[in-house]
Amino acid sequence: MRVSVIGCGHLGIPHAAAMAELGHEVIGVDVDREKVARLNAGDCPIFEPGLPELLAEHIGGGRLRFTTDIAEAAAFAELHFIGVGTPIGAGGMRPGLGYGGGCLPKDVRAFTASARQLGATEAAGLLLAAEKINESRTRVAMDLVAEALGDRLLRGIRATVLGAAFKPDTSDVRESPALALAMALHRAGGVVTVHDPQASANALLRNPELDHTADLPAALTGAELVVLATEWPEYRQGDPGALVELPADPLLVDCRTTLDPDRWRSAGWRVHQLGRPGT
After folding, report:
1. What pLDDT digit, counting tens, does each position of 82-104 carry?
2. Is 8 considered catalytic here?
């Protein structure tokens, strides 16, 4: 079948590549000419595991192409997919710091406004409560950081934040709880370095006042506080024994409660996690 995917961002690009992998002829549409040129050259502008390989295979094979011309897509395709403003799954709803990304936060706000306009005050109140709880997670995480530091003040502390993307396996930093926490640490006087294996470039554009790196050992070296903010596999599966000598103080605050605390503590780290006792 000939299909179009309208909107080629973090949702549309993977969907277009997946449809081509299933055997369909696919045309992707986006208003960003530079992005379309990159995609047609096989250069993937976002990170998703396995996506660059799919793009290279199907663009090279002629099954997938991209355009800025919506009329071209309308004339070509038998079926059209809208790739903007739609799929929230468990990946965007991890516990700990709250949800983020380009879809769910704005959708919740839109539903709240619509509910108010329709007079559905109880529904609006429920949605507003969800927003407020989500926004409060940064403060809860900061309270945990203060508890972990004990008598020490955050001002002047060299803090490394592990994670910038709003969830793992993406380079998307829109409304990222990890960056919100990094900025809260910065505003409280911390000297903040943010590490992310894929989202550092986007995080730098969004928050240039912070230091950013994709080099994990460099990020950890000399740190007096390490805060895990995005549950990347690189962190969950990392060797705590190989990393423990890098920071000035192996103090770890896991704001996603995703690490095995016994494994990290046995390697010499002091670990604090949301919802669990710290040592």
Report:
1. 887 647 555 555 568 888 988 88
2. no
Strands 64-67 and 79-82: unpaired
Residue 256: domain span: 138-273
Statement to judge: residues 177 and 252 lie in one domain = yes
Assigned domain for 268 exists: yes
Contacts of 151 (CB under 8 A, 6+ apart): none
Q: Is residue 131 part of a domain?
A: no
User: 8, 44, 103, 255: which one is catalytic?
Assistant: 103
C-alpha Rg value of the chain to the nearest Å: 21
Does one domain contain both 75 and 154? no
For the chain, the distance separating the N- and C-terminal CA atoms, rounded to the nearest angstrom, is 58
In CATH, what number is assigned to the domain containing residue 164?
Answer: 3.40.50.720
pLDDT of residue 87: 73
Count CB-CB contacts under 10 A for residue 129: 11
Q: What was the pLDDT predicted at 183?
A: 98
pTM above 0.85, yes or no: no
Our count of domains for the chain comes to 2
Mean pLDDT, rounded, for 129-148: 94
